[in-house]
Amino acid sequence: MISLEKQILYILMRKPEMEVSELIDIYQGRRYSPQSVRNALSRLKRLGYIRHHRRRYSLTSAGTNFLTAFQFKLAQKDRTWNGSWHLVLYQIPESHRNFRNTLRQELIHLGYGQLYHSVFLSPHDQTQSVRQILEEQGLSEFVSMFTGHFTFGEIDSKVHEIWDLEHIRGLYEEFLAWGSEKRTHFSRLPSISPWDAFFEILELGERFGNILLQDPILPAKFLPKDWPGPEAWRLYRELYDHLIQYVESDKGILQLARK
What we know:
Blueprint: H1 4-14, E1 18-19, H2 20-26, H3 34-47, E2 50-53, E3 56-59, H4 61-76, E4 85-90, H5 97-110, E5 113-116, E6 119-122, H6 127-137, E7 143-148, H7 159-162, H8 165-187, H9 194-212, H10 229-247, H11 251-257
Antiparallel strand pairs: 1-3, 2-3, 4-6, 4-7, 5-6
Helix pairs in contact: 1-3, 4-9, 5-6, 8-9, 8-10, 9-10, 9-11
């Protein structure tokens, strides 16, 4: 089950500003009490993911970054790779160790893989996202970025060392098993209430998003022929399209559910 905190982040991504009373109304009659909603908002504020101004909550840039890796990777899967690699190189002093660890984790979530100790690479141009992270963390002076082609040291043979594709395969296969059960369950229901469908969409996005935080979306030439990613993408789209039809009758919920 998707956590309440992540549910609220996804809701705020779709409706930029909300009062606590609106969020409490959304969860009225569900398993979360008004106090649990307030507690979740307090935790998100402490993490720096949301701000509170004039009784309304909204996402911070950190909260947006936490969620947008999913949308970015959705956009990459059908693009043709031009053969260029994008490298991030850093030399961050020990006094900034915590920021260095945060940067490393952020790069991995964006799909970068570790080529050498302080060198990460990606087949996708994510300069804007990386620069935003660097500016927020105050690390710009310690980092360089480069785009180009390898002229020595063939990278193709190292892909399976840089990214754990077998682990990612397992995540996709787990999603396919879970999604197939969901598809069977939905097919047996005469209908689904708009709010139930909305929270199913949130859980669907959470489960698939967790995979995308680990999948670098490599060009097809680097993937095994039986890679389960495309099948998982199709199942995700099928489930989303099935659920959204139940939400469409409620304009307010539809605003929250549309990507």
